[in-house]
Amino acid sequence: MSLTSAPTEEAVAGAPAPVAPGRAARRGPRLGVNPRGFAFALGLLVVIELLTATLVTSAYVPRPSEVGSALLSEIGEGDILSGLGDTLWAYLQGLGIAAGLGVILGAALGASNVAYQTFRVVIEFLRPLPSVALIPFSILLLGVGSTTTVAMIAYASFWPILFNTYYGVRGVHATSVETARSFGVGGLGVFFRVQIPSAATSVAAGVRISASIALILVITVEMLTRSGGLGHYIVRMQVAIRTEEMYAGIFLVGLIGYLISLVVGHLERRVVFWNVDSREDGGR
Amino acid sequence: MVTKKTRGAVALVVAAALSSLAACGGDGDTVVEENADGTTSITVATVASDSGSQAFYADSLGFFEDQGLEVTVKVVANVPDLAAAVESGDAQFALTSPTSVASASTAGINFRIVAGGAIYTVDNPGVWIMVPAGQDGITSVDDLEGKSIAVNALNTMPHLSTLATLDDAGVDVDSINSVTLDFTQVGQAFESNQVDAATVTAPFNYQIESDGIGTTMLSPYDAVNNGEDFYNTIWFGEQGFIDSNPEVVDTFRAAIAETNAWANDPANEDERKAILQEVTSLTDATMEDMQLLLFDDEVSPEMIQPLMDLMERFEVLPQPVDAASIIAGTD
Protein backbone atom coordinates (compact mmCIF):
# COMPACT_ATOMS: atom_id res chain seq x y z
CA MET A 1 0.00 0.00 0.00
CA SER A 2 1.32 3.34 -0.99
CA LEU A 3 1.53 6.07 1.63
CA THR A 4 1.16 8.77 -0.98
CA SER A 5 -1.74 9.42 -3.25
CA ALA A 6 -1.81 10.86 -6.72
CA PRO A 7 -3.07 14.45 -6.83
CA THR A 8 -6.52 14.91 -8.28
CA GLU A 9 -6.87 16.73 -11.57
CA GLU A 10 -8.87 19.57 -9.91
CA ALA A 11 -6.29 20.09 -7.26
CA VAL A 12 -3.50 20.26 -9.79
CA ALA A 13 -5.45 22.72 -11.88
CA GLY A 14 -6.08 25.02 -8.92
CA ALA A 15 -2.57 24.93 -7.53
CA PRO A 16 0.50 26.69 -8.79
CA ALA A 17 2.74 24.63 -10.98
CA PRO A 18 5.20 22.57 -8.95
CA VAL A 19 8.54 24.28 -8.63
CA ALA A 20 11.84 22.58 -8.17
CA PRO A 21 13.82 23.64 -5.10
CA GLY A 22 15.50 26.92 -5.80
CA ARG A 23 13.45 27.76 -8.84
CA ALA A 24 11.25 30.20 -6.95
CA ALA A 25 14.28 31.94 -5.60
CA ARG A 26 15.92 32.19 -9.00
CA ARG A 27 12.75 33.40 -10.61
CA GLY A 28 11.67 35.86 -8.01
CA PRO A 29 14.50 37.35 -5.99
CA ARG A 30 13.26 40.87 -5.58
CA LEU A 31 13.69 43.60 -3.05
CA GLY A 32 9.92 43.43 -2.46
CA VAL A 33 7.58 46.40 -2.30
CA ASN A 34 5.11 46.14 0.54
CA PRO A 35 2.23 48.54 -0.21
CA ARG A 36 0.30 47.62 2.91
CA GLY A 37 3.33 48.19 5.11
CA PHE A 38 4.08 51.53 3.48
CA ALA A 39 0.44 52.61 3.83
CA PHE A 40 0.54 51.78 7.55
CA ALA A 41 3.81 53.66 8.03
CA LEU A 42 2.37 56.68 6.22
CA GLY A 43 -0.77 56.54 8.36
CA LEU A 44 1.39 56.39 11.47
CA LEU A 45 3.28 59.51 10.36
CA VAL A 46 0.00 61.35 9.83
CA VAL A 47 -1.18 60.39 13.32
CA ILE A 48 2.12 61.56 14.87
CA GLU A 49 1.89 64.80 12.86
CA LEU A 50 -1.59 65.44 14.24
CA LEU A 51 -0.57 64.55 17.80
CA THR A 52 2.52 66.78 17.77
CA ALA A 53 0.49 69.63 16.29
CA THR A 54 -2.20 69.42 18.94
CA LEU A 55 -1.68 67.37 22.10
CA VAL A 56 2.11 66.89 22.35
CA THR A 57 3.48 70.41 22.20
CA SER A 58 6.90 69.86 23.75
CA ALA A 59 9.78 72.01 22.56
CA TYR A 60 11.77 68.78 22.25
CA VAL A 61 9.35 66.81 20.08
CA PRO A 62 9.26 68.20 16.53
CA ARG A 63 6.54 67.37 14.03
CA PRO A 64 7.39 64.75 11.37
CA SER A 65 6.96 67.43 8.69
CA GLU A 66 9.65 69.53 10.43
CA VAL A 67 11.91 66.50 10.63
CA GLY A 68 11.34 65.79 6.94
CA SER A 69 12.13 69.38 6.06
CA ALA A 70 15.31 69.26 8.17
CA LEU A 71 16.32 66.00 6.50
CA LEU A 72 15.98 67.49 3.03
CA SER A 73 17.87 70.60 4.08
CA GLU A 74 20.70 68.57 5.63
CA ILE A 75 20.92 66.33 2.58
CA GLY A 76 21.18 69.47 0.47
CA GLU A 77 24.02 70.79 2.60
CA GLY A 78 25.77 67.42 2.55
CA ASP A 79 26.63 67.25 6.25
CA ILE A 80 24.38 64.31 7.04
CA LEU A 81 25.50 62.43 3.93
CA SER A 82 29.18 62.64 4.81
CA GLY A 83 28.29 61.13 8.18
CA LEU A 84 26.31 58.45 6.40
CA GLY A 85 29.31 57.47 4.27
CA ASP A 86 31.55 57.09 7.34
CA THR A 87 28.91 55.01 9.10
CA LEU A 88 28.33 52.65 6.19
CA TRP A 89 32.06 52.16 5.62
CA ALA A 90 32.64 51.31 9.30
CA TYR A 91 29.56 49.06 9.20
CA LEU A 92 30.78 47.10 6.19
CA GLN A 93 34.28 46.70 7.59
CA GLY A 94 33.06 45.55 11.00
CA LEU A 95 30.47 43.15 9.60
CA GLY A 96 32.95 41.83 7.04
CA ILE A 97 35.55 41.07 9.70
CA ALA A 98 32.90 39.45 11.90
CA ALA A 99 31.61 37.33 9.02
CA GLY A 100 35.07 36.20 7.96
CA LEU A 101 36.27 35.30 11.43
CA GLY A 102 32.90 33.98 12.58
CA VAL A 103 32.55 31.54 9.70
CA ILE A 104 36.14 30.29 9.85
CA LEU A 105 36.27 29.86 13.61
CA GLY A 106 32.67 28.62 13.88
CA ALA A 107 33.37 25.95 11.26
CA ALA A 108 36.60 24.94 12.99
CA LEU A 109 34.89 24.66 16.35
CA GLY A 110 31.99 22.75 14.81
CA ALA A 111 34.32 20.29 13.13
CA SER A 112 36.50 19.66 16.17
CA ASN A 113 35.09 18.82 19.57
CA VAL A 114 38.56 19.21 21.07
CA ALA A 115 38.79 22.78 19.75
CA TYR A 116 35.31 23.60 21.04
CA GLN A 117 36.02 22.27 24.53
CA THR A 118 39.34 24.14 24.60
CA PHE A 119 37.87 27.53 23.73
CA ARG A 120 34.43 27.13 25.30
CA VAL A 121 35.23 28.78 28.64
CA VAL A 122 36.79 31.82 27.01
CA ILE A 123 33.98 32.09 24.47
CA GLU A 124 31.24 31.89 27.08
CA PHE A 125 33.10 34.50 29.14
CA LEU A 126 33.52 36.95 26.27
CA ARG A 127 30.17 36.46 24.55
CA PRO A 128 27.95 38.24 27.09
CA LEU A 129 30.28 41.24 27.46
CA PRO A 130 28.56 44.32 26.00
CA SER A 131 30.67 45.98 23.33
CA VAL A 132 30.02 49.44 24.71
CA ALA A 133 31.55 48.41 28.03
CA LEU A 134 34.75 47.64 26.15
CA ILE A 135 35.03 51.08 24.55
CA PRO A 136 37.50 52.55 27.09
CA PHE A 137 39.70 49.47 26.76
CA SER A 138 39.42 49.61 23.00
CA ILE A 139 40.45 53.28 22.98
CA LEU A 140 43.42 52.37 25.14
CA LEU A 141 44.39 49.62 22.71
CA LEU A 142 43.35 51.06 19.34
CA GLY A 143 43.10 54.79 19.96
CA VAL A 144 40.29 57.25 19.33
CA GLY A 145 38.71 56.93 15.91
CA SER A 146 37.16 54.64 13.38
CA THR A 147 39.38 51.67 14.29
CA THR A 148 37.65 51.44 17.65
CA THR A 149 34.25 51.69 15.98
CA VAL A 150 35.07 48.91 13.54
CA ALA A 151 36.49 46.73 16.31
CA MET A 152 33.37 47.13 18.44
CA ILE A 153 31.09 46.31 15.51
CA ALA A 154 33.16 43.26 14.66
CA TYR A 155 33.15 42.10 18.28
CA ALA A 156 29.38 42.33 18.72
CA SER A 157 28.54 40.92 15.28
CA PHE A 158 31.00 38.06 15.56
CA TRP A 159 29.09 35.93 18.08
CA PRO A 160 25.83 35.21 16.20
CA ILE A 161 27.81 34.23 13.09
CA LEU A 162 30.23 32.09 15.09
CA PHE A 163 27.51 30.17 16.91
CA ASN A 164 25.22 29.78 13.92
CA THR A 165 28.14 28.41 11.93
CA TYR A 166 29.13 26.16 14.81
CA TYR A 167 25.64 24.75 15.23
CA GLY A 168 25.23 24.49 11.47
CA VAL A 169 28.37 22.36 11.11
CA ARG A 170 27.54 20.30 14.19
CA GLY A 171 23.99 19.78 12.96
CA VAL A 172 24.97 18.02 9.75
CA HIS A 173 23.30 14.62 9.72
CA ALA A 174 25.71 11.79 10.48
CA THR A 175 24.31 9.81 7.56
CA SER A 176 25.42 12.50 5.14
CA VAL A 177 28.93 12.43 6.55
CA GLU A 178 29.09 8.64 6.54
CA THR A 179 27.73 8.48 3.01
CA ALA A 180 30.41 10.84 1.79
CA ARG A 181 33.09 8.84 3.56
CA SER A 182 31.79 5.59 2.10
CA PHE A 183 32.32 7.14 -1.31
CA GLY A 184 35.94 7.71 -0.36
CA VAL A 185 35.77 11.42 0.47
CA GLY A 186 38.49 12.37 2.94
CA GLY A 187 38.23 14.48 6.11
CA LEU A 188 38.80 17.85 4.42
CA GLY A 189 36.55 16.85 1.55
CA VAL A 190 33.74 16.02 3.96
CA PHE A 191 34.29 19.34 5.71
CA PHE A 192 34.22 21.49 2.58
CA ARG A 193 31.81 19.47 0.45
CA VAL A 194 29.30 18.28 3.04
CA GLN A 195 29.50 20.12 6.34
CA ILE A 196 30.07 23.69 5.10
CA PRO A 197 27.32 23.62 2.42
CA SER A 198 24.93 22.02 4.91
CA ALA A 199 25.70 24.77 7.43
CA ALA A 200 25.18 27.56 4.90
CA THR A 201 21.59 28.25 5.92
CA SER A 202 22.65 28.60 9.57
CA VAL A 203 25.52 30.86 8.56
CA ALA A 204 23.11 33.01 6.55
CA ALA A 205 20.82 33.28 9.59
CA GLY A 206 23.79 34.39 11.68
CA VAL A 207 24.78 37.02 9.14
CA ARG A 208 21.18 38.27 9.02
CA ILE A 209 21.10 38.69 12.82
CA SER A 210 24.55 40.28 12.86
CA ALA A 211 23.62 42.71 10.10
CA SER A 212 21.12 44.31 12.49
CA ILE A 213 23.45 44.14 15.48
CA ALA A 214 26.21 45.81 13.47
CA LEU A 215 23.98 48.77 12.65
CA ILE A 216 23.00 49.21 16.29
CA LEU A 217 26.64 49.06 17.31
CA VAL A 218 27.99 51.46 14.71
CA ILE A 219 25.49 54.15 15.71
CA THR A 220 25.95 53.53 19.45
CA VAL A 221 29.74 53.62 19.31
CA GLU A 222 29.75 56.73 17.13
CA MET A 223 27.44 58.42 19.60
CA LEU A 224 29.55 57.44 22.58
CA THR A 225 32.99 58.15 21.14
CA ARG A 226 32.12 61.09 18.84
CA SER A 227 34.28 59.39 16.23
CA GLY A 228 32.33 60.69 13.24
CA GLY A 229 29.53 59.14 11.24
CA LEU A 230 25.78 59.31 11.60
CA GLY A 231 25.86 58.53 15.33
CA HIS A 232 28.16 61.47 15.92
CA TYR A 233 25.91 63.61 13.74
CA ILE A 234 22.88 62.71 15.88
CA VAL A 235 24.57 63.52 19.17
CA ARG A 236 26.14 66.69 17.71
CA MET A 237 22.70 67.90 16.72
CA GLN A 238 21.38 67.02 20.17
CA VAL A 239 24.12 69.02 21.88
CA ALA A 240 23.58 71.87 19.41
CA ILE A 241 19.88 71.87 20.41
CA ARG A 242 18.84 71.20 16.81
CA THR A 243 16.11 68.72 17.59
CA GLU A 244 14.67 68.48 14.06
CA GLU A 245 18.06 67.61 12.60
CA MET A 246 18.68 65.11 15.40
CA TYR A 247 15.44 63.28 14.58
CA ALA A 248 16.29 63.50 10.88
CA GLY A 249 19.47 61.56 11.66
CA ILE A 250 17.52 59.02 13.69
CA PHE A 251 15.02 58.63 10.86
CA LEU A 252 17.89 58.03 8.46
CA VAL A 253 19.24 55.27 10.71
CA GLY A 254 15.81 53.58 10.65
CA LEU A 255 15.73 53.90 6.88
CA ILE A 256 19.19 52.34 6.56
CA GLY A 257 18.08 49.50 8.83
CA TYR A 258 15.11 48.85 6.59
CA LEU A 259 17.25 48.90 3.44
CA ILE A 260 19.85 46.61 5.01
CA SER A 261 17.08 44.18 5.92
CA LEU A 262 15.91 44.18 2.30
CA VAL A 263 19.39 43.73 0.88
CA VAL A 264 20.36 40.96 3.31
CA GLY A 265 17.08 39.13 2.63
CA HIS A 266 17.69 39.47 -1.11
CA LEU A 267 21.25 38.16 -0.84
CA GLU A 268 20.11 35.31 1.36
CA ARG A 269 17.53 34.24 -1.21
CA ARG A 270 20.23 34.35 -3.88
CA VAL A 271 23.00 32.57 -2.00
CA VAL A 272 21.11 29.93 -0.01
CA PHE A 273 18.28 29.65 -2.49
CA TRP A 274 17.39 26.09 -1.44
CA ASN A 275 16.24 27.42 1.93
CA VAL A 276 14.07 30.20 0.55
CA ASP A 277 10.76 28.35 0.47
CA SER A 278 10.74 27.74 4.22
CA ARG A 279 10.98 31.46 4.99
CA GLU A 280 9.48 33.04 1.91
CA ASP A 281 6.96 35.06 3.90
CA GLY A 282 9.23 36.10 6.71
CA GLY A 283 12.10 37.00 4.51
CA ARG A 284 10.57 40.12 3.11
CA MET B 1 47.02 15.19 19.21
CA VAL B 2 48.67 18.55 19.42
CA THR B 3 51.40 18.94 16.86
CA LYS B 4 54.52 21.09 17.04
CA LYS B 5 53.02 23.39 14.45
CA THR B 6 49.89 23.89 16.56
CA ARG B 7 51.97 24.62 19.66
CA GLY B 8 54.00 27.12 17.66
CA ALA B 9 50.89 28.86 16.40
CA VAL B 10 49.43 29.07 19.91
CA ALA B 11 52.69 30.49 21.26
CA LEU B 12 52.71 33.08 18.47
CA VAL B 13 49.14 34.16 19.25
CA VAL B 14 49.88 34.39 22.98
CA ALA B 15 53.04 36.42 22.33
CA ALA B 16 51.13 38.78 20.03
CA ALA B 17 48.38 39.24 22.62
CA LEU B 18 50.87 39.93 25.39
CA SER B 19 52.80 42.45 23.33
CA SER B 20 49.53 44.19 22.43
CA LEU B 21 48.62 44.47 26.10
CA ALA B 22 52.10 45.59 26.98
CA ALA B 23 51.72 48.36 24.44
CA CYS B 24 48.81 49.82 26.43
CA GLY B 25 50.06 52.85 28.28
CA GLY B 26 53.63 51.89 27.75
CA ASP B 27 54.83 54.65 25.46
CA GLY B 28 54.39 57.64 27.73
CA ASP B 29 58.11 58.45 27.71
CA THR B 30 58.42 58.34 23.93
CA VAL B 31 60.51 61.17 22.51
CA VAL B 32 58.73 62.93 19.67
CA GLU B 33 61.07 63.29 16.71
CA GLU B 34 61.18 66.39 14.55
CA ASN B 35 59.80 66.10 11.03
CA ALA B 36 62.05 66.74 8.04
CA ASP B 37 60.62 70.26 7.70
CA GLY B 38 61.51 71.08 11.31
CA THR B 39 57.98 70.77 12.65
CA THR B 40 56.89 68.37 15.37
CA SER B 41 53.76 66.25 14.96
CA ILE B 42 51.54 65.72 17.96
CA THR B 43 47.89 64.84 18.61
CA VAL B 44 45.66 66.60 21.10
CA ALA B 45 42.24 65.43 22.29
CA THR B 46 39.44 67.73 23.31
CA VAL B 47 35.67 68.05 23.42
CA ALA B 48 33.57 70.00 20.91
CA SER B 49 32.35 72.79 23.17
CA ASP B 50 33.28 76.34 24.12
CA SER B 51 35.34 75.13 27.10
CA GLY B 52 37.33 72.82 24.83
CA SER B 53 37.62 75.15 21.87
CA GLN B 54 41.20 76.46 22.21
CA ALA B 55 42.61 73.71 20.00
CA PHE B 56 40.16 74.53 17.23
CA TYR B 57 41.16 78.21 17.24
CA ALA B 58 44.86 77.37 17.32
CA ASP B 59 44.40 74.89 14.49
CA SER B 60 42.30 77.25 12.35
CA LEU B 61 44.39 80.36 12.90
CA GLY B 62 47.82 78.79 12.69
CA PHE B 63 48.94 79.32 16.31
CA PHE B 64 50.22 75.74 16.46
CA GLU B 65 52.10 76.20 13.19
CA ASP B 66 53.63 79.42 14.51
CA GLN B 67 55.28 77.31 17.21
CA GLY B 68 56.42 74.61 14.81
CA LEU B 69 53.74 72.15 15.81
CA GLU B 70 51.87 69.96 13.35
CA VAL B 71 48.80 69.17 15.43
CA THR B 72 46.00 66.68 14.85
CA VAL B 73 42.96 67.66 16.88
CA LYS B 74 40.82 64.70 17.94
CA VAL B 75 37.34 65.15 19.32
CA VAL B 76 36.33 62.68 21.99
CA ALA B 77 33.17 62.28 24.00
CA ASN B 78 34.03 62.56 27.64
CA VAL B 79 36.61 62.59 30.40
CA PRO B 80 37.32 58.82 30.51
CA ASP B 81 37.96 58.85 26.77
CA LEU B 82 40.33 61.82 27.15
CA ALA B 83 42.26 60.02 29.86
CA ALA B 84 42.40 56.82 27.80
CA ALA B 85 43.66 58.75 24.77
CA VAL B 86 46.57 60.23 26.73
CA GLU B 87 47.34 57.09 28.71
CA SER B 88 47.55 55.03 25.53
CA GLY B 89 49.78 57.59 23.81
CA ASP B 90 47.10 58.15 21.16
CA ALA B 91 47.15 61.83 22.17
CA GLN B 92 50.00 63.71 23.79
CA PHE B 93 47.82 66.35 25.44
CA ALA B 94 44.13 66.49 26.26
CA LEU B 95 41.67 68.84 27.85
CA THR B 96 39.88 67.97 31.06
CA SER B 97 38.88 69.29 34.47
CA PRO B 98 41.59 69.66 37.15
CA THR B 99 39.49 67.34 39.30
CA SER B 100 40.06 64.50 36.82
CA VAL B 101 43.82 64.95 37.02
CA ALA B 102 43.59 64.95 40.82
CA SER B 103 41.52 61.74 40.81
CA ALA B 104 44.00 60.13 38.41
CA SER B 105 46.85 61.21 40.66
CA THR B 106 45.36 59.47 43.70
CA ALA B 107 44.90 56.36 41.55
CA GLY B 108 48.62 56.37 40.73
CA ILE B 109 48.25 57.65 37.17
CA ASN B 110 50.91 60.26 36.48
CA PHE B 111 49.02 62.95 34.61
CA ARG B 112 50.29 66.51 34.91
CA ILE B 113 48.71 69.85 34.01
CA VAL B 114 50.69 71.57 31.24
CA ALA B 115 48.55 74.54 30.21
CA GLY B 116 45.49 76.50 31.21
CA GLY B 117 42.01 76.25 29.77
CA ALA B 118 38.73 77.98 30.56
CA ILE B 119 38.45 79.83 33.83
CA TYR B 120 35.61 80.79 36.13
CA THR B 121 35.07 84.46 36.76
CA VAL B 122 32.22 85.83 38.79
CA ASP B 123 30.82 87.57 35.68
CA ASN B 124 31.35 84.56 33.45
CA PRO B 125 30.89 81.41 35.54
CA GLY B 126 29.95 78.93 32.80
CA VAL B 127 27.62 76.84 35.02
CA TRP B 128 24.31 77.75 36.59
CA ILE B 129 21.63 76.23 38.83
CA MET B 130 18.27 76.51 37.10
CA VAL B 131 14.76 75.74 38.29
CA PRO B 132 11.75 74.85 36.16
CA ALA B 133 9.36 77.66 35.28
CA GLY B 134 6.34 77.81 37.54
CA GLN B 135 8.18 76.47 40.60
CA ASP B 136 6.83 79.21 42.86
CA GLY B 137 7.98 77.37 45.97
CA ILE B 138 11.66 77.58 44.98
CA THR B 139 13.01 81.10 45.04
CA SER B 140 16.25 80.69 46.98
CA VAL B 141 18.87 78.06 47.73
CA ASP B 142 17.17 77.32 51.08
CA ASP B 143 14.09 76.13 49.22
CA LEU B 144 16.09 73.30 47.62
CA GLU B 145 16.22 71.31 50.89
CA GLY B 146 14.92 67.79 50.24
CA LYS B 147 14.53 68.43 46.50
CA SER B 148 15.73 66.50 43.44
CA ILE B 149 18.60 68.25 41.67
CA ALA B 150 19.95 67.06 38.32
CA VAL B 151 23.71 67.07 37.73
CA ASN B 152 25.58 65.84 34.65
CA ALA B 153 27.61 63.33 36.67
CA LEU B 154 28.25 62.67 40.33
CA ASN B 155 31.39 64.06 41.97
CA THR B 156 32.09 66.43 39.10
CA MET B 157 32.53 70.16 39.64
CA PRO B 158 28.88 71.04 38.86
CA HIS B 159 27.77 68.45 41.44
CA LEU B 160 30.29 69.28 44.16
CA SER B 161 29.91 73.04 43.76
CA THR B 162 26.13 72.64 44.04
CA LEU B 163 26.57 70.71 47.26
CA ALA B 164 28.94 73.42 48.53
CA THR B 165 26.41 76.14 47.66
CA LEU B 166 23.68 74.27 49.56
CA ASP B 167 25.96 73.45 52.49
CA ASP B 168 27.10 77.08 52.80
CA ALA B 169 23.45 78.14 52.91
CA GLY B 170 22.76 75.75 55.77
CA VAL B 171 20.86 73.19 53.69
CA ASP B 172 21.31 69.56 54.76
CA VAL B 173 23.04 68.11 51.67
CA ASP B 174 22.06 64.58 52.70
CA SER B 175 18.45 65.55 52.08
CA ILE B 176 19.21 66.28 48.42
CA ASN B 177 18.38 63.68 45.79
CA SER B 178 21.11 64.13 43.20
CA VAL B 179 19.88 62.84 39.85
CA THR B 180 22.34 62.14 37.04
CA LEU B 181 21.09 63.79 33.89
CA ASP B 182 22.99 64.94 30.83
CA PHE B 183 22.84 68.69 30.21
CA THR B 184 21.02 67.98 26.94
CA GLN B 185 18.14 66.33 28.84
CA VAL B 186 17.52 69.04 31.44
CA GLY B 187 14.97 70.95 29.33
CA GLN B 188 12.84 67.83 28.84
CA ALA B 189 13.10 67.01 32.56
CA PHE B 190 11.92 70.54 33.37
CA GLU B 191 9.03 70.26 30.90
CA SER B 192 7.80 67.07 32.53
CA ASN B 193 8.56 68.26 36.10
CA GLN B 194 10.87 65.34 36.80
CA VAL B 195 13.42 67.39 38.78
CA ASP B 196 13.16 70.45 41.01
CA ALA B 197 16.42 72.04 39.85
CA ALA B 198 19.45 71.28 37.65
CA THR B 199 22.98 72.43 36.98
CA VAL B 200 23.27 73.58 33.39
CA THR B 201 26.07 74.84 31.14
CA ALA B 202 25.88 77.04 28.06
CA PRO B 203 24.21 76.89 25.61
CA PHE B 204 21.47 74.88 27.31
CA ASN B 205 20.74 77.60 29.86
CA TYR B 206 20.00 80.04 27.03
CA GLN B 207 17.68 77.60 25.32
CA ILE B 208 15.80 76.72 28.52
CA GLU B 209 15.29 80.39 29.33
CA SER B 210 14.32 81.40 25.80
CA ASP B 211 11.78 78.55 25.63
CA GLY B 212 10.33 79.68 28.96
CA ILE B 213 10.95 76.27 30.49
CA GLY B 214 13.16 77.40 33.37
CA THR B 215 14.89 80.30 35.09
CA THR B 216 18.43 80.83 36.38
CA MET B 217 18.88 80.93 40.15
CA LEU B 218 22.66 81.39 40.62
CA SER B 219 26.02 79.92 39.71
CA PRO B 220 27.18 77.10 41.99
CA TYR B 221 30.78 77.93 41.03
CA ASP B 222 30.55 81.08 43.17
CA ALA B 223 31.02 78.76 46.15
CA VAL B 224 34.22 77.11 44.89
CA ASN B 225 36.75 79.90 45.53
CA ASN B 226 34.64 82.60 47.24
CA GLY B 227 33.98 84.27 43.91
CA GLU B 228 37.66 84.37 42.93
CA ASP B 229 38.92 82.97 39.61
CA PHE B 230 39.82 79.30 39.23
CA TYR B 231 40.43 76.87 36.39
CA ASN B 232 37.39 75.08 35.02
CA THR B 233 39.41 73.17 32.42
CA ILE B 234 43.12 72.55 31.85
CA TRP B 235 45.40 70.73 29.39
CA PHE B 236 47.24 67.72 30.69
CA GLY B 237 49.77 65.17 29.55
CA GLU B 238 51.52 62.08 30.86
CA GLN B 239 54.47 62.71 33.17
CA GLY B 240 56.83 60.46 31.20
CA PHE B 241 56.07 62.26 27.95
CA ILE B 242 56.44 65.69 29.59
CA ASP B 243 59.84 64.78 31.06
CA SER B 244 61.06 63.38 27.74
CA ASN B 245 59.78 66.23 25.57
CA PRO B 246 60.24 69.56 27.38
CA GLU B 247 60.52 71.49 24.09
CA VAL B 248 57.22 70.12 22.86
CA VAL B 249 55.56 71.11 26.14
CA ASP B 250 57.00 74.61 25.89
CA THR B 251 55.87 75.12 22.31
CA PHE B 252 52.42 73.75 23.11
CA ARG B 253 52.12 76.15 26.06
CA ALA B 254 53.25 79.04 23.86
CA ALA B 255 50.64 78.16 21.21
CA ILE B 256 47.90 77.94 23.84
CA ALA B 257 48.98 81.28 25.32
CA GLU B 258 48.82 82.89 21.88
CA THR B 259 45.39 81.32 21.37
CA ASN B 260 44.12 82.58 24.71
CA ALA B 261 45.23 86.14 23.99
CA TRP B 262 43.35 86.03 20.69
CA ALA B 263 40.24 84.32 22.09
CA ASN B 264 39.92 86.66 25.08
CA ASP B 265 40.06 89.75 22.88
CA PRO B 266 36.46 91.01 22.42
CA ALA B 267 37.45 92.27 18.96
CA ASN B 268 37.72 88.63 17.84
CA GLU B 269 34.37 87.51 19.21
CA ASP B 270 32.64 87.18 15.84
CA GLU B 271 35.48 85.17 14.31
CA ARG B 272 35.71 83.03 17.44
CA LYS B 273 32.00 82.31 17.30
CA ALA B 274 32.25 81.37 13.63
CA ILE B 275 34.95 78.78 14.36
CA LEU B 276 33.03 77.49 17.36
CA GLN B 277 29.85 77.22 15.30
CA GLU B 278 31.71 75.23 12.67
CA VAL B 279 32.79 72.74 15.32
CA THR B 280 29.59 72.53 17.36
CA SER B 281 26.89 73.09 14.71
CA LEU B 282 25.12 75.49 17.09
CA THR B 283 22.49 77.68 15.47
CA ASP B 284 22.96 81.37 14.68
CA ALA B 285 20.40 82.31 17.36
CA THR B 286 22.23 80.30 20.03
CA MET B 287 25.61 81.72 19.04
CA GLU B 288 24.26 85.26 19.18
CA ASP B 289 23.12 84.91 22.82
CA MET B 290 26.07 82.89 24.02
CA GLN B 291 28.57 84.38 26.47
CA LEU B 292 31.95 82.96 25.53
CA LEU B 293 34.24 81.64 28.24
CA LEU B 294 37.55 83.26 29.17
CA PHE B 295 40.86 81.39 29.02
CA ASP B 296 44.03 81.81 31.05
CA ASP B 297 47.69 80.68 30.75
CA GLU B 298 49.24 80.99 34.19
CA VAL B 299 48.60 77.64 35.85
CA SER B 300 49.25 78.40 39.48
CA PRO B 301 48.38 76.17 42.45
CA GLU B 302 46.14 78.97 43.75
CA MET B 303 43.89 78.58 40.69
CA ILE B 304 43.68 74.79 41.12
CA GLN B 305 43.80 74.11 44.88
CA PRO B 306 40.22 75.29 45.63
CA LEU B 307 38.93 72.42 43.48
CA MET B 308 41.06 69.90 45.34
CA ASP B 309 39.78 71.31 48.63
CA LEU B 310 36.20 70.96 47.43
CA MET B 311 36.81 67.33 46.51
CA GLU B 312 38.33 66.71 49.92
CA ARG B 313 35.44 68.50 51.65
CA PHE B 314 32.94 66.03 50.17
CA GLU B 315 35.30 63.07 50.56
CA VAL B 316 35.68 62.40 46.86
CA LEU B 317 39.45 61.93 47.10
CA PRO B 318 40.91 59.07 49.15
CA GLN B 319 43.65 61.44 50.33
CA PRO B 320 44.34 65.18 50.03
CA VAL B 321 45.99 66.37 46.83
CA ASP B 322 48.40 69.28 46.72
CA ALA B 323 47.68 71.20 43.51
CA ALA B 324 51.41 71.88 43.01
CA SER B 325 52.01 68.14 42.74
CA ILE B 326 49.83 67.78 39.65
CA ILE B 327 51.14 70.81 37.74
CA ALA B 328 54.08 70.05 35.44
CA GLY B 329 57.23 71.79 36.57
CA THR B 330 56.05 72.71 40.05
CA ASP B 331 56.20 69.35 41.86
Automatic annotation (TrEMBL), chain A:
Which keywords does the record carry?
A: Cell membrane, Membrane, Transmembrane, Transmembrane helix, Transport
Any one of the GO CC terms: plasma membrane
- UniProt lists compositionally biased (Low complexity) regions at 11-23
Question: Would you tell me the protein name for this molecule?
Answer: ABC transporter permease
Tell me the SUPFAM superfamilies matching this sequence.
MetI-like (SSF161098)
Which Pfam family, just one, is annotated for this protein? BPD_transp_1
What sections of the protein cross the membrane? 37-61, 88-111, 132-158, 205-225, 246-267
Q: Which GO terms describe its biological process?
A: transmembrane transport
The ABC transmembrane type-1 domain, residue ranges: 84-268
Question: What membrane topology does the UniProt entry give?
Answer: Multi-pass membrane protein
**Spans annotated as Disordered:** 1-26
InterPro entries this protein is in?
MetI-like, MetI-like_sf
Q: Which family does it belong to?
A: Belongs to the binding-protein-dependent transport system permease family.
Tell whether Acyltransferase is among the UniProt keywords: no
Could you tell me where this protein is found in the cell? Cell membrane
